[in-house]
């Protein structure tokens, strides 16, 4: 980490607030804003958090859905335990993941995944769109009818095609950028509601998510 980046981070009010409130990342404020604006996480909702490490979004989701809700965090990296959150060690993009977390088991699928930054914007943009598409594949398998999908993507010419794919599966799609996103960042979020899928979860069922080796 460069000294300049470290200095700028410590001046960041969202970073300081995350440290003060015991949140795992400043990204937690992004999900909190999205939920406040779009009402994504009702009490009792079942949430799948893709690319969850270090766990900031999972913490917010757990608090918003309450004790009757259910949060499953997925990441190939180890996520430190969070009370009320189940962890599945796995990689988004692996075709076995929907079976591991439970098909048609979730009301909300979240993805705050970002690619490793290369410094070449066209490459980073394309990779971010690829990650969002991978998350969409999981969402189409894991969501119940009427469910919600949220995915981060870097803005650019490929977003329109991605958004069109999302619109095929959802009745409403919005683009937004939370205040906690850095002004210079090109990141944005697609918020999609009203999943058109026909699968229906059995009443009272929960996803069978258990810790397992990386795949």
Explained architecture:
This protein has 215 residues and is an alpha/beta fold. It has a single domain (25-195), classed as Vaccinia Virus protein VP39 (Rossmann fold). It contains 7 helices and 7 strands, in the order H-H-H-E-H-E-E-H-E-H-E-H-E-E. The protein has helices at residues 3-11, 13-21, 28-38, 56-65, 97-101, 121-142, 159-169; strands at residues 46-50, 70-75, 85-89, 106-111, 143-154, 170-176, 187-195. Strands 3-2-1-4-5-7-6 form a 7-stranded mixed beta sheet, with helices on both faces. Helix 6 links the parallel strand 4 and strand 5 (143-154). The longest helix has 22 residues, at 121-142. The protein is globular.
The number of distinct helices, counting runs of at least 4 residues, comes to 7
Whole-number radius of gyration? 16 Å
CATH fold assignment: Rossmann fold
Instruction: Name the average pLDDT.
Output: 84
Order of helical and strand elements: HHHEHEEHEHEHEE
Unreliable stretches: 1-24, 199-204, 209-215
User: How many extended strands?
Assistant: 7
CATH class: Alpha Beta
Helix content: 25-40%
Give the amount of beta strand, in percent: 15-25%
Adjacency order of strands in the biggest sheet:
3-2-1-4-5-7-6
How many distinct folded domains? 1
Q: Sheet bearing the most strands, described?
A: 7 strands, mixed
CATH homology-level superfamily: Vaccinia Virus protein VP39
Class by SSE composition = alpha/beta
Ends apart, CA distance between termini: 30 Å
């Amino acid at each position: 980490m460069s000294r300049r980046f470290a200095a700028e981070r410590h001046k960041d009010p969202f970073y300081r607030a995350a440290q003060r409130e015991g949140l795992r990342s400043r990204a937690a404020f992004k999900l909190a804003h999205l939920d406040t604006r779009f009402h994504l996480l009702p009490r009792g909702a079942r949430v799948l958090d893709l690319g969850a490490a270090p766990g900031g979004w999972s913490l917010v989701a757990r608090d918003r859905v309450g004790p009757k809700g259910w949060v499953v965090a997925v990441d190939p990296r180890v996520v430190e335990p969070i009370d009320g959150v189940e962890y599945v060690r796995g990689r988004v993009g692996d075709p076995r993941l929907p079976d591991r977390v439970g098909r048609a088991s979730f009301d909300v699928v979240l993805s705050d995944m970002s690619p490793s930054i290369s410094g070449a914007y066209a490459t980073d943009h394309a990779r971010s769109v690829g990650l969002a598409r991978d998350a969409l594949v999981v969402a189409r398998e894991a969501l119940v009818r009427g469910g919600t999908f949220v995915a981060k993507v870097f803005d650019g010419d490929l977003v329109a095609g991605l958004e069109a794919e999302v619109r095929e599966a959802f009745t409403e799609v919005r683009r937004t950028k939370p205040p906690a996103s850095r002004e210079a960042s090109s990141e944005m979020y697609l918020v999609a509601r009203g999943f058109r899928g026909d699968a229906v979860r059995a009443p009272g069922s929960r996803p069978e998510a258990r810790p397992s080796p990386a795949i």
